[in-house]
């Protein structure tokens, strides 16, 4: 007869604490086009998701929509991104620019009107900022000049004509440009001395020159504005923010997107007094958001699809607070959804979810929610590489971990490891049925066995896009690779188990014994020959 005696060792192996998060790349910028989204991480990688009918995602998904963030593998060391309606742009650290997606209007700047399925390098150099309108784009260069390309029917390129361009041309009369904003068919720029210029469509007063009228094909100077540090452009609406947080606005106001409590157009810059401590202003089509210096986000204008983020679909002619706090940045879009990064380094989305553009596997939502991905069932088998254990293993031991290959490039991982009690088979006249916690010499322990990885919460990487190798990230002072998952796993939470076996005979030291035990802490006892096992459960949670 075999007697199973519980030694009572419950291992909580972790790094410093039961759960620790590793440092990793986080979202720093986001933008959206027509049913697609891009996001930039602090490590210079670019991620995209949503509709891909014109390869605006920058990789091949067989034209299928992608419902979770997927890396554009060919882009590295990127510092700025921009989204057109169905085209993407990325600025590299060295000042070079990549573009892809729809090119019918010449907006890719590659000298033709062809679609590009993958990021393609422009000939333009020394670029410091990229910005995109619906079917046109801008490039600010190191010398302060502004260059434009694409659709120009409304004079939105600012070169004095209404003829489209497939190669970048210089915007006339501008120097020392700080930044530029592109709307539906008009543009606004601010120079380093705080001056504001506007050009393009003026059908609804978006230029702000005193009335509505024909297109303005060269930059118009707003002589009444001063000390401006940033500008933003919606569809025929314009905004300029002073260095003290005051905002001026003008243009179309059909949905209350100017925020004055009415739907009356403004044909000249008008002071927006509802919010006085703006940190940034973001016009998107027929609605507007302002991020305040305290991290609050306020929105007004059209609320179709819940894009104001106040939990309703009701249009707002005056600012209402979006239900999100600690906002670090807001991602401008050309459609009916919004993106925002918070101080917790995670990305949130809300509004109309057509084309999987919100990045969480669901449809529209009127409140901010995490960009996460889809749920998946149990998938694949885990493979465990050798583990270097401490010289003595007991209930208080810690196990430093190196994440050597998780087949997914994420913002950091949390690792939790727990264990069932050790069991053994065979009579043991020494210990009888007494229970205790003992210290096991590491040299007697081996790891074996593998179970399917269960995806508890998260997503799988696009099969076409492929897995991304994650270089080793040491969590703790000792390098210990622990798990290699099959290709196809991305951001999410995963759990699996393996067996920890003891090779005996051996001697262990008693650390803790039950009151009825014949042993006391410090006693050294021998165990019978046999196989002693416990089951370890590994839970890994990636950054989103």
UniProtKB/TrEMBL annotation:
Can you tell me which residues the record assigns to a coiled coil?
Answer: none
Keyword list (alphabetical) reads: Guanine-nucleotide releasing factor, Repeat, Signal
Which PROSITE patterns does the record cross-reference, listed alphabetically? RCC1_3
In Swiss-Prot or TrEMBL terms, this protein is called RCC1-like domain-containing protein
Q: Which residues form the signal peptide?
A: 1-22
RCC1-like domain residues are 26-211
Q: Which SUPFAM superfamilies match?
A: RCC1/BLIP-II
């Amino acid at each position: 007869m075999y007697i199973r005696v519980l030694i009572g060792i419950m291992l909580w192996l972790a790094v410093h604490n039961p759960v620790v998060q590793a440092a990793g790349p986080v979202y720093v910028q986001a933008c959206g086009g027509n049913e697609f989204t891009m996001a930039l991480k602090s490590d210079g990688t670019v991620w995209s998701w949503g509709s891909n009918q014109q390869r605006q995602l920058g990789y091949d998904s067989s034209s299928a929509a992608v419902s979770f963030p997927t890396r554009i593998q060919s882009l590295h060391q990127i510092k700025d991104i921009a989204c057109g309606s169905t085209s993407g742009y990325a600025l590299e650290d060295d000042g070079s620019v990549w573009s892809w997606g729809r090119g019918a209007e010449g907006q890719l700047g590659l000298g033709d009107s062809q679609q590009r399925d993958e990021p393609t390098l422009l000939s333009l150099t020394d670029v410091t900022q990229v910005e995109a309108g619906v079917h046109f784009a801008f490039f600010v260069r190191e010398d302060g000049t502004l260059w434009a390309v694409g659709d120009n029917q409304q004079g939105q390129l600012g070169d004095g004509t209404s003829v489209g361009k497939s190669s970048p041309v210089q915007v006339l009369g501008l120097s020392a440009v700080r930044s530029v904003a592109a709307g539906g068919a008009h543009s606004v720029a601010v120079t380093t001395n705080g001056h504001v210029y506007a050009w393009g469509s003026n059908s609804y007063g978006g230029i702000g020159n005193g009335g509505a009228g024909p297109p303005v094909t060269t930059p118009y100077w707003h002589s009444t504005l001063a000390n401006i540090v940033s500008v933003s452009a919606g569809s025929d609406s314009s905004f300029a923010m002073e260095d003290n947080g005051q905002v001026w606005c003008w243009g179309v106001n059909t949905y209350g997107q100017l925020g004055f409590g009415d739907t009356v157009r403004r044909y000249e810059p008008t002071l927006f007094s509802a919010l006085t401590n703006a940190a940034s202003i973001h016009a998107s089509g027929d609605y507007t958001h302002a991020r305040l210096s305290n991290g609050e986000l306020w929105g007004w204008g059209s609320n179709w699809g819940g894009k104001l983020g106040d939990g309703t679909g009701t249009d707002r002619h005056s600012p209402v607070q979006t239900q999100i706090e600690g906002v670090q940045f807001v991602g401008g879009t050309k459609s009916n959804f919004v993106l925002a990064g918070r101080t917790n380094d995670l990305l949130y989305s809300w509004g109309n979810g057509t084309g999987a553009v919100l990045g969480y596997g669901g449809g529209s939502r009127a409140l901010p929610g995490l960009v996460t991905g889809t749920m998946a069932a149990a998938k694949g088998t885990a493979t465990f590489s050798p583990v270097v254990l401490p010289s003595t293993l007991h209930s208080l031991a810690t196990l430093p971990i190196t994440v050597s290959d998780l087949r997914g490039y994420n913002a950091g991982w949390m690792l939790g490891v727990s264990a069932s009690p050790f069991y053994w088979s065979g009579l043991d006249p020494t210990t009888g049925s007494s229970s205790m916690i003992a210290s096991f010499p590491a040299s007697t322990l081996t790891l074996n066995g593998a179970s399917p990885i269960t995806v508890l919460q998260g997503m799988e990487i696009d099969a076409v896009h492929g897995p991304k190798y994650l270089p080793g990230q040491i969590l703790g002072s000792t390098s210990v690779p622990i798990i290699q998952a099959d290709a196809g796993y991305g951001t999410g939470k995963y759990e699996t188990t393996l067996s920890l076996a003891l090779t005996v005979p051996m001697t262990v030291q008693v650390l803790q014994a039950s009151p009825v035990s014949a042993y006391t802490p410090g006693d050294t006892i021998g165990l019978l020959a046999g196989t002693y096992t416990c089951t370890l459960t590994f839970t890994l949670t990636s950054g989103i």
